[in-house]
Amino acid sequence: MSLELSEPLQRVVDALSEKFSKEVIEVYQSTGITFIRVDADSIVKICYFMKDELEYIYLSDLFGIDRYTSEERFEVVYNMISFKEGSRVFLKVRCEEENPEVDSVYEVWPSASWNEREVYDMFGIHFRNHPDLRRIFMPEDFRYFPLRKEFPLLGIPGSIELPGTTPDTE
Amino acid sequence: MKLTDIQSRVKSTFFKEHQKKLYQSLEDKHTTIEEMDDDDPLTTKMVLNMGPQHPATHGVLRLVLQLNGESIEKTKVDIGYLHRGVEKIAENKTYQEFMPYTDRMDYLSPYSNNVALCIAVEKISGVEVPERAHYIRMIGCELARISSHLLWLGTMVMDAGAISFFIWTFKEREKVYDIMDRLAGHRFTVSHSRIGGVANDITDEAMGAIKEFIETFPNELKDYHKLLDRNRIFIDRNEAVGVLKTEDAIRFGATGPVLRATGFAMDTRRFNPYARYSEVEFEVPTRLEGDNLARYFVRMEEMSESIRIIRQCLDKLPKGPVRTDNAKQAYPSKDEVYYSMEGMIHDFMMTDTGICPPEGAETYSAVESPKGELGYYIQSDGTGHPWRLKINAPSFTNLQILENMLDGEMLADTVVIIGGMDPVLGEADK
Asked: Pick from B87, B364, B429: which is nearest to A147 by CB?
């Protein structure tokens, strides 16, 4: 599929494929949005490059995707903005189903902190070097990862402690 | 004095593991507040638990604050008390069925949430929206912005000490509710937008109410300015409180009015115009100070810009249908459903399977909700249900800053700072 890249995005793709020719796995577009899939091990390096050299200084969002039944089951997507160019780029990395682990980009953009906690909470993807990797929505006592496809919609009975409905008698 | 014995003093009865880790992370948090003299009785340290059931936290936000005398040394924010798992629910619903859930995300401006979802779904499945529907959506979005900012104004001023003001802003909010009632048929959770357009055209009644509102509201706004702009107490409570520098705002990912109050004119309506925002004139208000007062001015100006946008929309409002006519992409009108067989079949098909974007398509589209950039990422697997739907919620993004912003502030300013951030927990907790 041929790409129709706007000028700033063309520069990003050119710069990335020149500097990280081995790490860039694929560049594709869907509904006019550009996704760049890169090697998971060098994500921090690439993010630093995006931020320092290409001015993508603002991390708008970071989230996980469960590609259930596919190879390399989990995907983490980085949604970043360059105010200077007025453009938005999506980087993607994939990781294995067993012990999914990705390097944290906290040091690049501190705003990634809560988003990474959310991905950890929902998918169980572990972020290496994250300063405070706790669950964010679910309590720590919860043992499952709700947004994984095998987690039932109705939840797992008894998996979470609920307060009693009668007031304390003290 | 070291507070290493928090754990032993906390007698949690619930989610024990959770509480343990939360207090642990508070202990571990690094801050650069200078040490005070240990012998001074005024420097007694304590850990204060605020919320989740605290009226000033605007919902179910929980803060754990370590205090040094009256100043805050470190903060941890604990959210998730309103977590309903809407992203999981979305994966099991058709796109249209999911819409009422978006009303309950940012429940202070349901209209912009509906529009955000619709625009994302329309983008991924290539649905054309009639011109008139775009303008109706813009009017709805701007009314929602006014309504949300009015609630923020009332509660924030209440946090700063003036109770009666809350009632005055609610008087105006009530008018917006009445308009929504006439426009969409619901006062609060409107669900007026539809994939491919809007549910119904503006009625004459709604049109009259909107026209009356945009005439009277600027005067009210003037009164608010008169009351607050030079008010000694209000300025003392807000000036230089909760200061956020521009570079910090970008590093920590602030969005919406919080970012604009630090001097950065980032507005999705400008950055990546949706609907017909490219065809109306409006300013993006900014302030340089980055404190609570700056956020106040930014939001106040946004309200008058909203009025300006509504005026232009009413002038430009084109004639024509309000929903796309393609029965494979949008619900047919009720007339068709009741009086023709095809209409009924199409209605049934839309309810049963809904709209099916192409397999493997992915999209992201963002709107400028009153709180900031509200984005929907959708990945389709070719069925009527999204494979993955991610909501980029502005309140979530902004609340993160609170952990960094509160460090070093006074305890008494906590509620004002939360009020100035204007988080909605329904959205932050998803």
From this structure: B87
